[in-house]
Structures are given as structure tokens and as C-alpha cells.
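Notes from hallway chat w/ T.B., transcribed later so I don't forget. T.B. wanted the structure written out for a chain they're using in a teaching module, and asked if we could keep both sequence and C-alpha cells in one place. Agreed to drop them here.
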Amino acid sequence: MDFHLVPRGEDRNYTGFLTKTIVYTASLINDECHGDNRYFCSMWRSVGFLMSFAIVLEGMTVVAYLIVLSGGKRLRESGWKIVSLLIILSAAVQAASMSLVAYLVDNEDRFASGWVLDESWIFCTVSWCVSLFVAGVLILAGTTLPSEGGYELIPDQIN
């Protein structure tokens, strides 16, 4: 499983339009994925799959949200359930992936002492917490707010 972020797959400095960064390829060495090391590779690939799946769920949420908003009254009255379900599923997948990373950092010998979960882990935590909050507000609004009333007829008063 190779993810080459730079041309020719080399680890090197890369000069962009505004910044100069060092880019590394994110791949596991084949020797690391055999025998006793298979456990780590399986867990690490599961993390990658779960985060990719969370992105797919979030994309589906955006599409469902746009469909519900562009639909009629009936679709808006029932569509919030699907949108909130997709948001909750996305948050659950993010939390599961994040917990796998935390477990690996705490229990795997590959991570030297002093390794800490940093900004990406915090961003992921904030992301799924905000997602759960938004889903909760959506469910609360969907269950407590009254239905759209429709149109009232204007009385015909001819003098």
C-alpha cells in the first residue's frame, strides 16, 4: 500500500507556491507486515480505512442535506432523520478510528516514549464532538418544532 505524495515517490524537499515543506511517503515496509508484525499493519490499515469511510459518510451527509433542503415540505419533515443518522454514523466511525490510534500509540513498541497525540488527534476529537452536537440539535429541532403550517387562505371580502 503506497501513498506517494511527491513525484517519483522520493522523500525530499518540495517547494510549493507559498511554502517549502518536507514531504514523506506514507507506506508500510513489507517486512513490517509479516509474522508478529501483522497485527500492527492490520490495525494501522483499519485506521486508514475508517477515516476514509468517515469522509465518504460526511460526503453522503452533505448530499442528503442538500436533497432535503431542496425537497418539499414532506421531505423536510422526514429527511432530518436520515441526515442526523448519517452525522451520528460519521462521528462514530471517526471516534472508533481515533481510539485505534490512541490504543496503538499507548501499547505499540514502534512508538518511542515521548510520542504524543498532537493536533490531528485534537482536530478529529473536535470534529466528532461537533458532529454529535449538530446531530443532537437536529434531532431536538426535528422532534420539538412544529410542522410547517402551509398556506392560510386569505378571506375574500368583497364590499
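Follow-up for T.B.: Helices lie at 38-70, 73-107, 119-144. Might be a good example for the class.
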